[in-house]
Amino acid sequence: MKRMISGLEAAELDAVSAKQDAASTLPTRAYTDPALYAREEMRLFRAGWMPVARVDQVAEPGDYLSLTLLDQPLLVVRGQDGIVRVLSNVCLHRAARLVEGAGNRKLFTCPYHAWAYDTEGQLVRAPLMNEVDGFAEKQCKLPALRTEIWQGFVLVNLNGDAAPFAPSVTAYDARFAGWGLERMVVARTLHFDSPWNWKVLVENFMEAYHHIAAHSTTLEPLFPARASVVPVNEGPYSILHMPAAPHAESFEGGFPPLPGLDEGDAHDLFATVLFPHFLIAYQGNGATWYQLLPRAHDGFDLYIHVLVDRDHLAGADFDRLADDAAGLLSAIHQEDIAVNDLVWAGLKAPMTKPGRLSTLETSIWQFNQWWLEKMSDG
User: Fold this and answer.
1) pTM for this structure?
2) Per-residue model confidence as pLDDT tens digits over 130-175
3) CATH code matching the domain that covers 53-150, chosen among 2.40.30.30, 3.30.710.10, 2.30.110.10, 2.102.10.10
4) Among 46, 56, 243, 362, which has the highest number of CB atoms less than 10 A from its own CB?
């Protein structure tokens, strides 16, 4: 099928949609053009499901966290009724942001005029508004986003039209059932301001080819690039399987291994992307969630969350082990930052053209086919 995307040439799109052994990368404008990024916002981000939190981050009634998703300030909160909601974090009066950060509250009081909302978003106090004709507090409630809980993640759909998320990833669920993802909790979180197009990170995450140079002394000895494989994807996702080298020791930190994993799963590394940018890596003793919050075509916020089985929270060595795991992830990501900086500079260079994909970049090819389908006019 011929693909047509405004701003990109037909020959470029044909090269991307070719069979993998003949395919090229996306055109550089797919990364650098603000108009194409705006199209991604509408067709990929707002039309689909985006992860905003883990349920353990709002475990108790009144627990909340705030974030900004595509210019919309949001409030993830567990109500006094136990339900997790994702609400607009903007006061209904004069549009001030209600709260920052995370914590626990029964009321969210606007710092501008002291309008106060309960944990379900209902306005319960509006000082000095009793003399306003026709005004009724009970008619004012913070807008709520459509929400789905999957494997302990809180997902939102911005335009409200997406099909349910879980049925699209049943094969993925079956493949990683042994990890008990729904039981995991956030042990540590790292934040990185990332001054590149979001796809630069996704592509880097989904191939082990760069281990031979960018991670030559860290990941490559443990998970050699040449051994990596990508199965045929059975849904809107891709899985990169990185078998461990013989006798390789675990690199994720010292948390105990998860029970019930077979020998291969317990020692190997898996990087997965649920399209477009829901990134989860699996190790034998836990998982890592790379949370992307795009801001523009040339920048996003990255939060790397260390996920461990909730039973580890009570361990005497929890803090030390969590710090060790976070420190190692930070060191690995610093290596990725260095090469992603190089890629971003190159993508903006006038002479840069699409390159041919390696046989070790199957996940990128799978993602590109999905990207073409969602972004195309025909």
Assistant:
1) 0.96
2) 989 999 999 999 999 999 999 999 999 999 999 999 999 999 999 9
3) 2.102.10.10
4) 362
